[in-house]
Amino acid sequence: MKMRNTLSVTLALCIILFITLMDNATVGDFTLVSRANWGALPPRQSLPSLGRKPLAIVLITQTNSLGCYNNTSCLDIIRKKQTFDMNHLGKLDINANFLIGGDGNVYEGRGWGYQSEEERSYDVKSIFISFIGDYSQMVPAKEQVDATMELLKLGVQQKKLSKNYKILALRQVTNILKPGVHLLDVIKTWPHWVPIINLYARSYLRNNIIKDLLFAHILNIEMDHLLLRSLSLIIGILLIGIFFTTANEDLIDNSNHQIIKLRPDEISAANEFTRNPKDLHIITRTDWGAQPATDSPRQLKVQPATFAIISHTATQSCYNEAKCILNVRVIQTFHIEAKGWLDVGYNFLVGGDGNVYEGRGWDAAGAHTHNYNNRSIGIAFVGDFSYKSPPKEQIVTAVRLLDHGLKTNKLAKDYKLIGQRQVAHTQSPGDKLYNVIRTWEHWSNNP
Length: 447
Hints:
Layout: H1 2-23, E1 25-27, E2 30-33, H2 35-38, E3 55-62, H3 71-87, E4 98-100, E5 105-108, H4 120-123, E6 126-131, H5 142-157, E7 161-169, H6 181-187, H7 208-219, H8 224-239, H9 264-271, E8 282-283, H10 285-288, E9 305-312, H11 321-338, E10 348-350, E11 356-358, E12 376-381, H12 392-407, E13 411-419, H13 431-437
Parallel strand pairs: 2-5, 3-6, 3-7, 4-6, 8-11, 9-12, 9-13, 10-12
Antiparallel strand pairs: 1-2, 4-5, 10-11
Helix pairs in contact: 7-8, 9-13
């Protein structure tokens, strides 16, 4: 009986191992990790099909996350990426068809059969491949490049890709600057690369007819009918379109608020600081790995700024630099890709690690508070402070940042300090943080 049980357990383990090996299929010189094996959530609903014809375009992008170089860290990032795409960007599923890890593995996203939701004009015609990481500063690993080339070779063999498919970077067909320049430099050397000019660097060229023209050019198809359709539009764009810039980025969805009673411990926390500018540490956009803005931001119309507006990001808090950098990158991605803004909306973000993270900086108009962006500095506390107070380090750093702005003439001597909820329909910056800032210098009850 004992021998029979042992054999049964051994057989079960062999079956599990076989299923795992089948799911994680080794194809050519790379391993394709299935959705089941990285623990994918099911899509919100049925995904639109790409059809049966071989696809003509491969679009390369990046996740804008930290890189990963082993299976464990890659799995963690992909799961978080799917959650972010679905919960924050409103997608049906993780957006990419495939993701490439620095461990040399290919991770199945939507696979060969289903459309992405990355760029509407290309979703029905393209496979989207996303490199895990941010390649504005780091270089893709050789293992990633090799795995991608093997995946593309497999796509042709299985007739998922046309033999004459074209490779493009997402930044060539949208105003989103992905992938980063270091990955862009690599894919420019690949076979099938198409060196077209990006027509979407500014908002006035985002038009479906222009996209049709570009797509026709890429595929070398007949364009006469498209040229006839769009000739008058192109003339109009050249004459007047160039003078327009995006102006809708500072529209924010908000909700009602209430004020609660101030606690003595929150008053003392706000007052415990020393005004030593040497203690202020501002991490620049370069150092936290910001992606470039999709367009040049407008400058403040009123300088020095007459308002400092405090908000919170309503995200998870962070208490070390690595986590805060990741949070700030995610916030920027959300503002650009979900809200359609040209950059992260705040002028500065303050982390629970005691660092300031540069957003749009002192001189540019933000996208945080409608009707106040042109005359204010928007400072966001990273975290949700509806029910908990920020740590002392975060409070002290924000006060020092305001003091620095005053001393460098970026804030007017009589500037007004307010919470976002005072001038917008929102709970921000949360009841707990709102109680703290009411004790600070320059606080104004009547903006």
